[in-house]
TrEMBL record, chains A, B:
Name of the protein described by the UniProt record: DNA-binding transcriptional ArsR family regulator
Protein source organism: Sphingomonas xinjiangensis
Keyword DNA-binding in record: yes
Residue ranges occupied by any HTH arsR-type domain in the UniProt entry: 6-99
GO MF, one example: DNA-binding transcription factor activity
Keywords associated with the record: DNA-binding
């Protein structure tokens, strides 16, 4: 794929996978891709600036978590689920479950904030 | 514990756990602690400078991966295995398995390096 490279299975390291998941935007992208076969950048960007999002896709690709294919000028992204499962059995599932726990915690926090304003 | 704090279970995030595992020294510490109930810093440091190692223990503690107790001037470190299992079921086991895969790959690589020197 012109200009877009993906690491070979044996070159995917835990260190790089973890590095990719140190950012909430990248965690969100992985979580969303887990629910669909593939998605375009414009869908995943959800209105965020293309310039900063490009960096996130590159980090995710370099880690081995996602792959990107192009058709014309459109990029389609997908989780490298089968390959990750082969490389690190059980890891992706455990990470996705952990993301759900974190997201659930954040939803609860937003529903009942610890600090509240006094109603006028 | 004087001067040593640990995050509460609900404050352990996937992002911080991943951040802690972006460094090979910290990955090694977690991998070693998985094989023992607890270990002193001097055992885990394995001759590396105490000054740089202190940072690694702090990052690991702040992520929720390890806890540290003191007795006199000695620090004893342990994985927060039960708590992590409660917070993110299956994650620690999957991470430890992934570490073993990576370590196995490195061992194979060292046994048969891709580049070799020409014997004189």
């Amino acid at each position: 794929m012109k200009g877009i490279s993906h690491p070979a299975l044996d070159d995917i390291s835990l260190e790089n996978v973890c590095q990719a998941l140190t950012d909430p935007v990248r965690i969100e992208i992985v979580g969303r891709l887990a629910k669909m076969s593939e998605a375009t950048c414009s869908v995943l960007n959800a209105g965020r600036p293309k310039s900063s999002m490009s960096h996130h896709y590159r980090v995710l690709r370099d880690s081995g978590l996602i792959c990107t294919r192009t058709r014309g000028t459109t990029h389609f992204n997908a989780l490298r689920r089968a390959e990750l499962d082969a490389r690190f059995p059980g890891l992706l599932d455990a990470l996705l479950k952990a993301m759900a726990v974190d997201a659930d915690g954040e939803a609860k926090y937003e529903a009942s904030p610890r600090s509240s304003t006094i109603p006028i």
